[in-house]
Here is the input.
Amino acid sequence: MSDRPIADYALLSDCRSAALVSTEGSVDWLCFPRFDGPSVFARLLDRDAGHWSIRPAGTVATDRRYHPGTMVLETTFRTPEGTAVLEDAMAIGGEGSAHALGANAPGLLVRRLTCTEGSVGLEMEYAPRPEYGLIVPLLSLENGGVRGRGGADVLMLSGTRTPTIDDATVRSTFRLATGERRAFALQHRSSWESAPGIWSEDESHARIDETIRAWRAWSELHDTYDGPWRDLVLHSGRVLQALTFKPTGAIVAAPTTSLPETPGGNRNWDYRYAWVRDASFTLEALRVAACGDEAHDFFEWMAGATAAAVHLGSELQIMFGVGGEHDLAERELTHLRGWRESVPVRVGNGAWDQRQLDVYGELLGAADRLADVGGGFDEVTTHFLVDVAEAAAERWGETDEGIWEVRGGRRHFLYSKLMCWAALDRAIAMADRLDARGRVEDWMKVRAGIREAILSRGWSETAGAFTQAFDSDDLDASVLMMPIVGFLPGDDPRIRSTIDAIEERLTDERGLVYRYRTEDGLEGDEGTFLLCTFWLAQAQATAGLVDRARATFERAIAYVNDIGLLAEEVDPATGELLGNFPQAFSHIGLINAASAIAEAERTGAAAPIMG
Here is the structure.
């Protein structure tokens, strides 16, 4: 098994795939050629599933950071004899427009070592294990490199000088003195593509420098937020860009699979896909982060992936592969022991064919956000959005599995009704753009009916709050969206009471928010959700409770790791980060909550993101 803390890892990305690097300089997770591709290194999930480590021999102290304005990692190793700096980057490609970051990524992981003081003895260990550790590749020495062949993968490690190969593992030891440096590059090709060549060290150095410049150019272009927690907001914008699959614009929920919600538990899911439910909140975060082109790309991908299902009258799928794939059938990798023996390890996601009625509101909310930043719709997209509104009007009264993808049966979840209301509310507001004035009267009638149902069946006098489902007394953090989407004003007494109830009864001793505390058809427990804690802060800001919003926000960001990354959850017993990492929705929540608090401090209350 692997037991290194999740917070110990840093993210690298070329906007196509991702790697995780530990504080000890070990790449323990890397998928090629896409985020959802089979791993080459998976020691994150099993100590025998592959890694690539570079570190000093003997005693060492480390600290790390990202190069300012980039996702290029810098780890400093301090030994009794000297200091060495390791720089890690997934090469981003040519230096063209900052808008095209990652468009020409060559599928290359580059690592550079520089001795900055004294002399340092170093060790490199390279153990590729393609297809999630199933394959032990054939490794062969070439002039200045090591070629690896196994299954559908061909790998070339450049920069080695006098390595040894034993048990399909490359090992090398060397020493650097002050001012000396070494560079290594790992390139991937599929077996049917032209074989990768050997990179010179000069070429590897150039790739790292080029990648630093490209990320900084992107960051400078998107440096417009000037509110509280500025550095965290801007960094979270870079994290979202790093989780973007540039060829389509899709944003993955996380670059990992099966990091659990409870250590040793079985709530282990594959998050390397894009969820429609994240859409409107993602577009809002991209607006705050000044990512206009990225917002257009994400919406166009999402509209293209979902349009066919709505037009044909079938269920609107809730998630897709980054290329727009529909079938995300789930399977278990029984040969992997899991992070801290958290099994099963899963690839694919069985929730892909669930019914979630909230996605209609997410899509139309995203369209409204895009229109606000200057987006227009072509004829096909216009018809698609009208179909989405019609589907919300027809299906809002049905049961579904809800936003949290419960596996205990369908219910009348309040959040699903709320987002159907939001779908019609946004469609009515955009009626002229959608050439749908003739449908407004009918949409308004249905919207009013949804509103009445939510107010009469979603409110519990016993709970003193809006609740998880109709005719229920159970609390659920998703109802915090009611003021955020503009269903009721933040200062409505029922909203204030709901905020109070969630803050008092749906939090742990640290003040972090659970999604819910009810039976969901799954075994095991889960931690508190950082996204839900950011939602509480955002709802408090919308309600004008600015001091409380700030305090809630500060409680959440206390769990940012040393390089500004957040997972999905926090262990209520230990405070350790849990779940897939880093989590896009946590960073989206951070951006939106910070922006809402900034607006509330200017005006007295934050505006809803819809309505």
Summary: The two ends are 49 Å apart (CA to CA).
